[in-house]
């Protein structure tokens, strides 16, 4: 399969007179944000600039101050370190509010903090692609978010490739090699195993090996 084919399948889900949300799930480093952006770009190329929009779960990371308050500083990226209820509420708004712009937060890997209103869902968007680790997890909050998604697709990427990407991400973010390895093994690893357990609850499995995706954030 190619990005063009997957984008066509995503667009086929979109309601002619409504708005459809498609979720991409997968463990850390699987390529979710890269694929989501590529799908949105391809749908826009085929159907117009306002036809699709991007909505990342990463915008609902808790701030570093809140993580410290909760004792989750060393578990940033784990399921409890997200404002899942805020995410579910935004999905509801995007589903129901079709007559106005809806602003979408993101996560800034330079600031290491969430930032408000980086992305936009315009009234014309018929397809919204959202992505995040835990979209298919059968747990409180995540179940509430899932009900707004027409389908959830799971990205299957070899662990070795994911680990290389995650190490690169941590070192680019300022950690030395030893600290990056410790973070990936002690945090990203357990998070990834939790996400893998949700694979069976996804509607479709996408194998990314050999897929030529543009450079992105993985």
TrEMBL record:
Which SUPFAM superfamilies does this UniProt record tie to the protein? P-loop containing nucleoside triphosphate hydrolases (SSF52540)
Domain of life, per lineage:
Bacteria
- Tell me the first and last residues of the signal peptide: none
Question: From the UniProt record, which GO molecular function terms apply?
Answer: kinase activity
Q: Which InterPro entries match?
A: P-loop_NTPase (IPR027417)
Keywords, A to Z?
Kinase, Transferase
Per its UniProt record, what NCBIfam families does this chain match?
PRK09270.1-2 (NF006743)
**Name this polypeptide is given:** Nucleoside/nucleotide kinase family protein
Species name = Streptomyces hiroshimensis
Q: Taxonomic lineage per UniProt?
A: Bacteria, Bacillati, Actinomycetota, Actinomycetes, Kitasatosporales
């Amino acid at each position: 399969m190619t990005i063009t084919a997957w984008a066509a399948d995503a667009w086929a889900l979109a309601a002619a007179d409504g708005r459809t949300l498609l979720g991409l799930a997968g463990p850390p480093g699987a390529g979710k944000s890269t694929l989501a952006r590529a799908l949105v770009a391809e749908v826009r190329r085929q159907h117009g600039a306002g036809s699709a929009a991007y909505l990342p779960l990463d915008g609902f990371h808790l701030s570093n101050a809140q993580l410290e308050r909760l004792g989750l500083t060393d578990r940033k990226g784990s399921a409890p370190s997200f404002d899942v209820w805020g995410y579910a509420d935004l999905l509801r708004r995007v589903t129901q509010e079709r007559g106005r712009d809806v602003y979408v937060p993101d996560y800034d890997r330079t600031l290491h903090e969430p930032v408000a209103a980086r992305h936009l869902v315009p009234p014309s968007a018929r397809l919204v692609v959202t992505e995040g680790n835990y979209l298919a997890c059968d747990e409180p909050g995540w179940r509430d978010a899932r009900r707004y998604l027409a389908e959830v697709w799971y990205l299957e990427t070899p662990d070795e490739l994911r680990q290389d990407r995650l190490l690169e991400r941590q070192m680019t973010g300022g950690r030395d090699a030893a600290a990056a390895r410790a973070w990936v093994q002690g945090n990203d690893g357990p998070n990834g195993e939790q996400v893998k357990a949700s694979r069976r609850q996804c509607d479709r499995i996408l194998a990314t090996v050999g897929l030529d995706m543009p450079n992105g954030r993985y």
